[in-house]
Design a protein that fits this description.
683 residues, Rossmann fold, 20 strands, disordered C terminus, binds iron/sulfur cluster
């Protein structure tokens, strides 16, 4: 029997997921260890759609087991259809968290997927026992679909098309000890991935004690924490360290990394590997929502390679009650931010828009509070209704009056030779009784302005100047939004196009969205429409309309100073804006990299910044105006040009590579006239 396990991801426009296929590899290792079959069973694992297509064509499987997440559900279905065209006797199975919670929805979900024979369910995030059970039964009944579905069996559901009924298998208990799963690393299932560029992923523990209703980890059966032994995790980490490229991060699929005592033991072993192998230099995971003391200890142990995920999602008590989430106090949060910054790491805050009970005012206050606590970036995610998350159950939708629209999952589409264009779609909450559709767009614009101007410290000196005059970053961004009508036309157009495209990407139903996407497939594929709009338009605002953005920022600071009757006491503002104009690089980069503007200033802006903005800029006044020249370091120029050659000089390309660069990478170097050395420099 030939069994293909496929944890597919789109890869034409972007990689849906950048990690090793740990979920499917766990299933493979578990099945290989425990399946009893009189005849050989060939198990194969697939990540890339192209590889699966080639394998189906050359050696069609008997069983195709596909993972289902919000970002690959349609892709998996497309391959199930394709596989059945090639081999009508193919048995298709699907498993993963993308599965509804109510019986009625499960029935209609499966009824609507004739290409899927069996939904291998298992408890949340745990398909090993259920998949083994389905495979064992299939072998025991002689390999036929009719035999398999003759009667219900634990851990699997299906829709009986002849009888028109939904068949539900009994629930399977979760594993108390995750060491029951043989390591997919030590058994060699991950060996093909060390050269792939994907990131290795492990999981120390499964389960989450919290109950956030928008999340599919929050279901009751998932509350208890079950874990691997520390010894097994150590063995996996060592196996990876001996093989992986040291520049690649390690990922943990845990929901609350650092919150449990065993995480400290793992952290100590990671520190040992860092000494021995120089790996890992970055740990990607979700840190615990409680026990900040433990999380901080873990962060210290791994020497600043673990960023803290400071997700609060909302600070409104009504919302937190509605979604059954408890956050740490804002004071404790601010303490953590200090620790994170002391370790030289950036602290990020996360909120979700349009949560039940949230208002525009409470949302914006949360942004303001987070910025006051010291975070350098506040992500505002949109509320997605996920299968498997309680908030998407019909009663909760009704209770909270959630109005939704459908859109394409950014860049998750492609054509993989299955006979159709494949498009993933997602359902977003865009309106509630306390948050109107218009407020949804207004808040999106606020967030875009925050991203262009404040995130990554792009215009840090200007914001610090404003702060020294009593203007908080939040108030300044609010002012920018209020006065958008007076922004330079080129910058204003960026914002207007963002609003237009944000409206145009929303559809009443998934079918309408898919039809639109298929009729605009070429544009979506070449990036001329769609994509991650916030990223795309922040690139346009920052790099394509950079001069206009700076002009607008300067005018806005001036106007707030005027409102507060402080304009007479702010002689340094022109120096700050002039400094930023002289050093910031923008598109077209060939032109910008070649230019060497000069800057004459009365104030030492860089000296002020290097002194940590401790005193007002006015304390850093030169005796007389000083002329500066600018140039781009050769290494910086080469880096930018090579990234452009790889990703392209368009918003989607810039959106990709700027994520791994700092704002300082897009700045010229400054020196007093006569001080510069090196090729082509003015002196
Ligand atoms: S959002 Fe995080 S803390 Fe809340 S249930 Fe999900 S995994 Fe747990």
């Amino acid at each position: 029997m030939r069994v293909y396990l496929a944890d597919l991801g789109h890869n034409q426009l972007t990689f849906s997921s950048d990690i090793y296929p740990i979920g499917a590899a766990n299933l493979a290792a578990y099945t290989q260890a425990y399946l009893k079959s009189p005849k050989p069973v060939e198990l194969r694992l697939f990540r890339e759609p192209q590889d699966l297509r080639a394998a189906i064509d050359s050696a069609p499987p008997d069983v195709l087991a596909l993972s289902s997440y919000a970002w690959n559900h349609e892709l998996s279905k497309s391959f199930a259809r394709y596989g059945k065209q090639r081999n009508p006797r193919l048995i298709t199975m699907m498993g993963g968290p993308h599965y509804p919670l109510t019986i009625e929805e499960m029935a209609s979900f499966l009824e609507g997927m004739p290409e899927i024979d069996v939904a291998v369910r298992g408890p949340t995030y745990e398909g090993e026992r259920a998949f083994l059970g389905a495979m064992q039964r299939l072998i025991d009944v002689g390999g036929s679909l009719d035999g398999l579905l003759e009667e219900s069996f634990p851990g699997s559901d299906w829709f009986d098309r002849k009888a028109g009924t939904f068949v539900r298998g009994a629930l399977i208990p979760r594993m108390d000890d995750l060491d029951e799963i043989p390591s997919p690393y030590l058994t060699g299932w991950m060996d093909p991935y060390y050269e792939s560029g994907y990131f290795p992923m492990l999981q120390i523990s499964r389960g989450c004690p919290f109950t956030c209703q928008f999340c599919n980890s929050s279901v009751k059966e998932n509350t208890k924490i079950h874990a691997h032994s520390v010894e097994n995790v150590r063995q996996d980490l060592l196996y990876i360290a001996e093989r992986v490229k040291p520049e690649l991060p390690v990922c943990f699929a845990d929901d609350n990394f650092g919150m449990y005592e065993r995480d400290q033991e793992v952290a100590e072993y990671i520190a040992h590997l860092q000494d021995k192998f120089g790996w890992p230099r970055y740990i990607r995971t979700t840190t615990g929502k409680n026990r900040a003391d433990r999380v901080i200890k873990v962060m210290r142990t791994v020497r600043g390679t673990l960023p803290m995920t400071s997700a609060v999602q909302s600070l409104n008590p009504v919302v937190l009650e509605n979604i059954k989430r408890s956050n740490i106090s804002l004071d404790a949060y601010a303490e953590i931010q200090k620790e994170v910054q002391a370790q030289g790491m950036q602290a990020y805050g996360e909120l979700i828009l349009s949560m039940p009970g949230e208002t525009k005012a409470s949302f914006l206050k949360a942004v303001s509070d987070l910025l006051d606590s010291g975070v350098k970036r506040v992500s505002a995610h949109q509320l997605m209704l996920l299968h498997g998350a309680p908030l998407s159950n019909p009663d909760q939708r009704q209770r909270f009056g959630l109005h939704t629209r459908w859109r394409v999952v950014a860049r998750n589409l492609g054509n993989y030779g299955t006979g159709e264009d494949v498009v993933e779609v997602e359902e977003m909450v865009v309106e509630t009784p306390t948050f109107t559709f218009e407020e949804y767009f207004e808040t999106r614009v606020f967030h875009l302005l925050l991203t262009i101007f404040y995130h990554e410290g792009n215009y840090e000196e200007a914001f610090e100047y404003a702060r020294h005059h009593g203007i908080k970053p939040f108030d300044l961004v609010m002012h920018l939004q209020k006065t958008l009508a007076s922004a330079p036309p080129r910058f204003r157009q960026v914002i207007e196009q963002f609003v237009t495209e944000s409206r145009d990407e929303l559809f009443e139903s998934s079918e309408e969205c898919t039809t639109w996407a298929r009729s605009h497939f070429a544009g979506l594929l070449d990036g001329s429409i769609g994509g991650n709009l916030l990223s795309k338009y922040s690139m346009l605002g920052r790099f394509f309309a950079g001069s206009e953005a700076l002009e607008f920022l300067g005018t806005s600071i001036r106007s707030v100073l005027r409102e507060r009757e402080l304009d007479g006491q702010s002689p340094g503002l022109e120096s700050v804006i002039g400094y930023l104009r002289a050093i910031m690089l923008h598109t077209p980069f060939a032109h910008s990299l070649a230019a060497s503007p000069t800057w004459t200033a009365e104030f030492d802006v860089e000296g002020w910044r290097d002194a940590g903005y401790a005193q007002p800029l006015e304390e850093h006044r030169f005796g007389k105006p000083v002329e500066f020249h600018t140039r781009v370091d050769d290494a910086k120029r080469a880096l930018i040009l090579s990234r452009i050659a790889t990703f392209g000089e368009h918003p989607a390309g810039l959106g990709k590579f700027t994520r791994t660069m700092f704002s300082r990478d897009f700045r010229r170097t400054l020196a007093r006239a006569g001080e510069m050395t090196g090729s082509g420099q003015a002196a």
